[in-house]
Amino acid sequence: MRAITAAGIGLTLALSAFTFAAGPTSAFETPAVSTAKQSFITKVDDRDHERCERVRRECRDRHHEHEKEYRECVAREHCD
Predict the structure, then answer these.
(1) pTM of the model
(2) CA dihedral 12, 18, 21, 24 (to 10 degrees)
(3) What are the backbone angles phi and psi of residue 16, rounded to the nearest 5°?
């Protein structure tokens, strides 16, 4: 009977520890997938960088001799 009681207590302790280690239980804890969100942010930045490179190239082709107009063209597209 003592062996069954000890096994029951051990199982209860193991399950409670497993429950606490399973994942965030508070709204203040960050989820484990936060690193995946970082990769998406990088991809958006890459696309924005590629778009600005295209805008700069097009503005340079249009206003190659006029620096002020080139800067205005780039600023209009929010690629300062």
Answers:
(1) 0.43
(2) -90
(3) -70, -40
